[in-house]
Design goal:
6 strands; single chain; 6-stranded antiparallel beta sheet; 19% strand; globular; 7 helices; alpha+beta
Length: 198
């Protein structure tokens, strides 16, 4: 699934599928050392707020469940032109009342937010963008989870030096099977062992 620039709500897979893919990477990257890093962390992880991604450079994202099958995805990639666009773009326009407005407004106030998407009843949405907006950063941030070849590569090679995944081309089939099991919510220890060093 290719993500447009700027992103369109239909570019994202169903929220539950995105959650399963992202959560699988967070599980594979988890370690006792990483869990002790607190707020200054990089990679993919899950905590009480939701799923997170931070590459320590140009992209960070949070994906949070809001109850009742509702989700919010927000973050920033340096490719986003939303916060610099003139006239300004209201990233929260037409947002539902269940969005974490306090958090989002804090991020907006400190120029740390590049875009916000939300999902309800299986449908993604976002604020309207002006016609001349080039990019909102969704592609650079989320394509690792939406495009199957990139995702399988992420499972095989990881995104940081401490990855415990087995980096072998002959693991493509195991990575694809693991992805499919995660999306179906049928992960087993054996399936994880096929891919990761234990």
């Amino acid at each position: 699934m290719t993500i447009n620039r700027p992103g369109l709500p239909g570019d994202l897979p169903p929220a539950e599928e995105l959650w399963a893919r992202w959560a699988l990477v967070a599980v594979l990257e988890a370690s006792t050392e990483a869990e002790g890093q607190g707020v200054h962390r990089s990679g993919h992880w899950i905590d009480g707020e939701g799923l997170h991604l931070d590459d320590c450079g140009c992209t960070w994202w949070t994906f949070a469940p809001r109850g009742g099958g509702r989700y919010v995805l927000y973050g920033e990639d340096e490719s986003s032109a939303v916060k610099w666009h003139e006239p300004g773009v209201d990233m929260l326009a037409q947002g539902p009342d269940w969005l974490p407005y306090e958090t989002l407004r804090d991020l907006l106030g400190s120029w740390q937010l590049g875009c916000v998407y939300w999902s309800e009843d299986g449908t993604w949405a976002r604020a309207p963008y002006p016609e001349d907006l080039d990019d909102d950063g969704l592609d650079c941030g989320m394509s690792r989870f939406t495009e199957r070849p990139q995702y399988v590569n992420l499972l095989l090679y990881g995104t940081w030096d401490g990855c415990r995944c087995a980096p072998f081309e002959d693991r493509q089939e195991a990575a694809a099977a693991l992805l499919d099991a995660a999306v179906r919510r049928e992960l087993t220890a054996r399936a994880l062992e096929e891919l990761a060093y234990i």
